[in-house]
């Protein structure tokens, strides 16, 4: 049987629970820290960028950031569905935003995850889980 990789060893659920979201305010602060711009300037630039991406997708066009990915709006066709009560309901066509990462972004993310797992394993995987406490009736 082939040996499992580090990524396979760490369960999907454990990786998902360990994630920490990067909120917009934190992103702005990090970009400002890495550049010579103020947080106000970075916030204005980010807001403008997101607005342009949204307007372009609403117009039916796509935005491609080479090496990162492609933002586009896909049209979902109108359809009729049957509800829980058995009655049919009509759903109109609509544009749904989507993002397709470039293969280079996928590879970079995969490399980062592999490096983090290797670092965690070299540290010994952290402290072992403590034994569960068992409550006993005291008389």
What does this structure look like?
The chain has helices at 6-9, 12-18, 24-34, 39-58, 103-122, and strands at residues 63-65, 69-76, 79-82, 88-91, 94-101. With 139 residues, the chain is an alpha+beta fold. Strands 1-2-5 form a three-stranded antiparallel beta sheet. Helix 3 (24-34) packs across helix 4. It is extended.
**Sequence of secondary-structure elements:** HHHHEEEEEH
Q: Give the termini distance in whole angstroms.
A: 54 Å
What's the CATH class label? Answer: Few Secondary Structures
Number of strands: 5
Major β-sheet profile: 3 strands, antiparallel
Instruction: Give the overall silhouette.
Output: extended
Essential attributes:
single chain, 139 residues, HU Protein, Chain A, two-stranded antiparallel ribbon
Topology:
Blueprint: H1 6-9, H2 12-18, H3 24-34, H4 39-58, E1 63-65, E2 69-76, E3 79-82, E4 88-91, E5 94-101, H5 103-122
Antiparallel strand pairs: 1-2, 2-5, 3-4
Helix pairs in contact: 3-4
């Amino acid at each position: 049987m082939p040996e499992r990789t580090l990524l396979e060893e760490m369960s999907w659920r454990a990786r998902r629970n360990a994630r920490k979201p990067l909120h917009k305010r934190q992103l702005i602060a990090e970009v400002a820290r890495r550049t010579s711009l103020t947080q106000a300037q970075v916030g204005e630039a980010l807001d403008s960028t997101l607005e342009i991406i949204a307007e372009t997708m609403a117009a039916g066009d796509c935005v491609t950031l080479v090496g990162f990915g492609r933002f586009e709006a896909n049209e979902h066709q109108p359809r009729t569905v049957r509800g829980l009560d058995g009655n049919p309901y009509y759903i109109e066509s609509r544009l749904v935003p989507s993002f397709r990462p470039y293969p280079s972004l996928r590879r970079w993310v995969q490399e980062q995850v592999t490096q983090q797992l290797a670092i965690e394993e070299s540290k010994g995987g952290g402290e072992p889980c403590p034994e569960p406490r068992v409550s006993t009736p005291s008389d």
